[in-house]
Amino acid sequence: MTGQIKKEINETADNRAVVTDEEIKLINAYSRRKLTKDEVYVFGVVLCDNDIDRDNERFTVESLFELEKLFVGKTGIFDHSPTAKNQTARIFACSVESVDGRKTATGDDYFRLTARAYIPKSKGNEEIILAIDSGILKEVSIGCAASDVRCSICGENINHCSHIKGESYSGKLCCGELMGIYDAYEWSFVAVPAQKSAGVMKSYKGKEMKMEEILKSIQTEKGTSLSGEECKRLCSYIDKLKKSAADGVYYRDSLTSEVLRLSAIVQPDITRDTMESVAKGMSIVQLKEFKHAFEKRADSILPSVPQLYKQKDTATADVNGNFKI
User: Fold this and answer.
1) Helices assigned H by DSSP within the chain
2) CB-hemisphere CA count at 13 Å for 48?
3) How far apart are alpha carbons 92 and 69 in whole angstroms?
């Protein structure tokens, strides 16, 4: 983007519908026929910034520069509803800019991603243009994809560390930093954006979370979102746990019954009810130790009886052997 375009974006971020010669050239790169300045309505919009949003996440300045390239040419719609009839405007230029004297919630210099978009002037678009000029259509939200979300405290993946978004640690606010932006889908006019100054709807398509990470995010986060695939994996994991638990219950019941049987032999003075109560509080390892000890004592009380057998009658066998055909 040329310095002139950046300057024009900064000067027209207040949505003044001023079309320059350079801008109409950029707009005509997307039109099937050459449009004139009088045929288009141009306005500026702040897409997103590096401040913490309502989800306790933010874009890094590097991510804003990645989005600057990706959002050129992207269509504007309403409420993230991806239908052709919802297509309203198109971005033809983007720029990352700093705002002098403004700081983010974390105390960093404030940066924002601004854009210039156009709408064809037509009878069907008159109400939309009026709503923009009157400040009714103002808040926007963007749809993009980030490969990673890092903890602002320790720098690790937010799903791997022990820090919680929205909490403060030694006076520093924890948030998720969106990094590795690799796609931008669209931008939408919305009523309540995630970002206070603009808005952002985010999706993450990086490395799949391991089951331990999914469980950790559920345990440590005040709120968490899982993809459809992660939900399936979690349900499958729970089903396996249920089956393992059923097998464990069967094994424990069998082990307990054996301990109670042996206890009646080696400790007849202890009632079955008492031994059952004691066994309920034992772990599997403890039950196995009791079973092993009771078996030893039971062997000394009731020694094994050798198997009875009848000695072979060799004489009879020899006599019978004389009868041969």
Assistant:
1) 3-11, 21-28, 61-70, 126-133, 211-220, 228-266, 272-280, 284-301, 314-320
2) 32
3) 11
Q: How far apart are CA 130 and CA 210, in angstroms?
A: 49
Q: Take residue 22 and report the two structure tokens written for it.
A: 């350079």
Q: Contact, 192 vs 139, CB < 8 A?
A: yes
Sequential DSSP letters for 139-169: -EEEEEEEEEEEETTT-SBTTTSS--TT-EE
Whether 114 contacts 71, CB under 8 Å: no
Chain mean position to CA 63: 19
Q: What digits encode the pLDDT tens for the residues 235-268?
A: 888 888 888 888 888 889 999 999 899 888 888 8
Type of residue found at 282:
M
157 forms bridges with which residues in the sheet? 150
What six digits make up the tokens of 151? 């903890």
Joined tokens for residue 174: 């924890």
Of 60-69, 81-90, 199-208, the least confident? 199-208
Strand partners, 49: 112
Each residue's pLDDT tens digit, 192-230 = 666 655 433 334 444 455 666 666 666 655 455 566 666
